[in-house]
Every structure is written in structure tokens, then in C-alpha cells.
Amino acid sequence: MTAKTYCSVGNNVCDINYYCPASGVLHETCQKCSIDIPVGYGCNCTAKKSIKNCIECRSRYCLKCLPGFYTNLTRCLKCTQGCKDCKSEYNCTRCEDGYIFNSARKICTPKCFTNTDCMDRKGKYCNLITNQCESCGPFCQWCISPSFCYSCISDQYTLTVSGICEMGCLNLQNGEYCKEGKAEPCFEGCTSACKCGEQKNCATCSLAGYCTSCLPHYQQEMFGACTQCS
């Protein structure tokens, strides 16, 4: 394109590898495609027809898109959430602020700062060194570290006072706890929760089915309920 060519929103007359910067009703000069193309505009890969967010064309196809987009040759598609630049939907190369790059999976994951940030992903806790949600121990649903669980994935497992999920016991009676898959009478210092009606996290239980003491890291509330210490 040697002479200036003017274009408008409804009349994109720009040549290949040029784009129309017009907005509204004003006519603008066709511009050479470059990385400075604003988001939402795009290079003409065929005469008078643009590919939105494309910055480089060859033989009718888009070879390169603006940062934050990737090309499938006929369109520029947005990178996944948290990804600042990518080669494809599942191949991120840079992350936005607040995200961490997972080099093995080529994705960006949100940084975490407390375990609460990982609550939407069961079986995860926040590693405060890496600021990433990482896996709890085996059979654990919620944990504060990989070695200390406070809720198992199902009633099939028993949570020990040391924060480990072990194989549970079937048909425990009130006043019994599960030790290595076998029912044993509860006592102060038992290694897992005492069966006590519908109440959880008990160490010992009354004949009426109320907690009389709680496991470590739990405190007794009204009506004998044991709740996690704050």
C-alpha cells in the first residue's frame, strides 16, 4: 500500500497485513499490522476482511495474535484464565499477576495465601512457601498440611488424632472407637473419634450419647458438641 487508504467501521478497504483503526463514524488511515494493534481490532488476512486480535498474516491465515490470545489460523482465541500469553488453549507461557506457572501442566493457577483459598478444591491445602494449593494426604478431604488431615473423604475412613485417615470400622456402637480397623472401648487418649450418637470429634462419651471430652484440637461447646479450636 503506497498511497494512503481511508477506511471506516462499515467499509474496511485495507489491504492484506493492514488493519482499520476506525471507530464510530470517522474515517481513518489504514495502518500496517503490528503488536500495537488495540485489542478488538485485527489484521486483514484477506483483502477487506480482518481477523480480530490478529497481528500477523500469511497466505490468508493468522500466524500471530496479540498477547493473551492464540491462533488456530482462522481466529484468535483468548488464553485461559490467569494466562497472560499462550501458544494454545493448553500451553500457557506466561501468567498474569496473582497466578503461578505450573511448568508440568503448562497452566496458570491462582496463588493462595491461606487454606481458605483452596477450599473450592477438596483434598488441597495452601503451601505458604510456594503459594500453591497442594495435595493433602491419602483419603483426606480437608487438611492444614500434607501430614495433618481434619476431615476424611468418607465415613469409610477414620480420622486419627495425629491427622491421618485410616480404614474405618463398620457399625461402631456408642462408646467405641476405631483402632486399625477394629472397634475398641473409648478412653481418654484414644487415637480416633469416639462413637457418640450424631456428635463428632469426641474422645469419650456418656451413656446418653453425649460427648464428655473432645479430641485434641477440639473444644467442647454447649450440649457436648466438639468444635475445632480457632
Automatic annotation (TrEMBL):
TNFR-Cys repeats: from-to residues: 64-118
Species of origin: Spironucleus salmonicida
Name recorded for this polypeptide: Cysteine-rich protein
InterPro entries given in the database record: Growth_fac_rcpt_cys_sf, TNFR/NGFR_Cys_rich_reg
Domain TNFR-Cys: 64-118
SUPFAM superfamilies according to UniProt: Growth factor receptor domain (SSF57184)
